[in-house]
Amino acid sequence: MNGRTSNGVPILRLGDVLVTGLLNELDDKSAVAFTDELTTRISSDGARGVLVDISRLEIIDSFVARTLMELTTMARLLGARVIVAGMRPPVAITLVELGLQLDGVETALNAELGMAALGWYQSAQPPQGGGRDTDR
After folding, report:
1. Residue 27 and residue 29: Cα distance in Å, rounded?
2. Is the pTM of this model over 0.90?
């Protein structure tokens, strides 16, 4: 697999965690394709966690909110934990103003904190022995 869904949304695998994101261009057809591909990948890759970065999402409507809730429910049924990361303040305000609650959806301030919640931590030191011989 090349890491992209049929609608062009990247789904990257980092160990047993899948990392993906949502953009503003999410329509009904692309949302269904995205959800289908992501749930298939959860199952086929044996993912125990999914990070959905929405930091590039400038607006949200009831459709996108419902898609996130359904995706979280499906992933949970497949044994994976979903964290939605990077929600912008205007998106949070819109959700509250519309009376939409993302029931069952875990959130994190940013992708780094979301990955930490899924058990991934940034190493404090760079990797040793990068494979380059600098003594020549």
Report:
1. 6
2. no
